[in-house]
Amino acid sequence: MENIQIMIQDDLQVEERVKQVVKEPGKYAVVYLNDEQTPMEFVITTLIKHFQYTKEQATKMTKTIHEDGKGVVVALYNFEIAEQKATEVKVEALQNGHPLEIKVESA
């Protein structure tokens, strides 16, 4: 998008061209990290509740997290939404006595 401004001052005319570049906001992923204390059933429940996974999808993702040490939630979000979802899951984990770690990564 180009914005042209013309300023006239006394006998002097100045034309200024300003080019605005609109950049799409970055996308971020929510990443679950494996630990040996959080029950798999709890992880499955949070994937269903917070990320709208089906039971089958959540079970598969939980196995991936357990086997690979981490799992990236399929959906990508803008930073604020990803951070909010990660915080909601962390709070729920803490309220239930689980040390589940979740982070937000740039996609």
CATH class designation? Alpha Beta
The total of beta strands comes to: 5
Strand arrangement, major sheet: 4-3-5
What's the average pLDDT?
90
Assign a percent range to the helix content.
Answer: 40-55%
Distance between the termini: 27 Å
Question: What is the CATH topology?
Answer: Ribosomal Protein L30, Chain: A
Helical run tally: 3
Biggest sheet: strands, sense, closure? 3 strands, antiparallel
What is the succession of H and E elements?
Answer: EEEHHEHE
The domain count comes to 1
Please identify which CATH superfamily we are dealing with.
Answer: Ribosomal protein L7/L12, C-terminal domain/Adaptor protein ClpS
User: Structural class, judged by helices and strands?
Assistant: alpha+beta
Shape: rod-shaped
CATH architecture: 2-Layer Sandwich
Cα Rg: 23 Å
The stretches of 5 or more residues where confidence is low (pLDDT under 50) are: none
Strand content: 25-35%
Question: What does this 3D model show about the protein?
Answer:
Strand 1 and strand 2 form a beta hairpin. The strands form two sheets. The chain has a three-stranded antiparallel β-sheet. It has a two-stranded antiparallel ribbon with strand order 1-2. Helices cover 40% and strands 29% of the residues. The chain has 107 residues and is α+β, with helices and mostly antiparallel strands. Helix 1 (40-51) packs antiparallel against helix 3. The protein has helices at residues 40-51, 55-68, 79-95, and strands spanning 2-9, 12-19, 28-33, 70-72, 101-106. It is rod-shaped. The chain has three helices and five strands; from the N terminus they run βββααβαβ. The two termini are 27 Å apart. The chain has a single domain, classed as Ribosomal Protein L30, Chain: A (2-Layer Sandwich).
